[in-house]
Amino acid sequence: MSSFDLSGRVAIVTGGNGGIGLGMAEGIAAAGATVVLAGRNAAKGAAAVKQITDAGGNAEFMDVDVASEPSCRALVDKTTTKHGRLDILVNNAGTNIRKAPDVLTAAEWHTVIDTNLTSAFVCTHAAYPHMKQAGGGKIINIGSMMSIFGTSFAPAYAASKGGIVQFSRACATAWAKDNIQVNSVLPGWIDTDLTKGARREVAGLHERVLARTPAGRWGLPADFAGIAVFLSSPASDFVTGTAIPVDGGYSVQG
Description:
By secondary structure, the chain is α/β, with parallel strands linked by helices. It is 45% helix and 15% strand.
């Protein structure tokens, strides 16, 4: 359907060289957009680019340190200089330090907040004038089920992801007049490198996730291709400020 066609569009996906970011990037590229995969690991980035181009999509890798404001701004500048436009921004890059609140240090707090939340602000701030000048754009910010639920072992992560949802809503209300839609996606328990670490560190997590998830499985990065295309395309032009769970029903199970 033409409502989902992204031909001629340009997208940036931070953390797009693996996990959920790559799953979203694959969907966006398959719908016709050129996708810039932004990350720190060039070898991983090259493999992700090959995966997308082998499937017939257009992708390239750009180096970025999302914890650095100059690096985030340079990413947007390089993309718009090279491609002449920026239509879609997916703020996906993230990290976690699993400690209880009483043992988490301020430095560790800032590491998580700067990577997960401040980077989304900076990249969005840099992208806004380009989207406004072009007459519109799409911004997708990756939250988490921990935007909704509490957990003892990820206070900084949960705070950053709760912040993502409220930041998205603020941008959505501010920029609706500019035809820029800003939405959050809330992944449930997804099989990625980040959650593999959680399963090693949190006893019984795997079994608890399966027991609570009606779909009866962990999610896969590929499960995010469809929501990425929807929120990047004209099909979602009247959808803004939302926070959409992609969790196999985890958040509705009592």
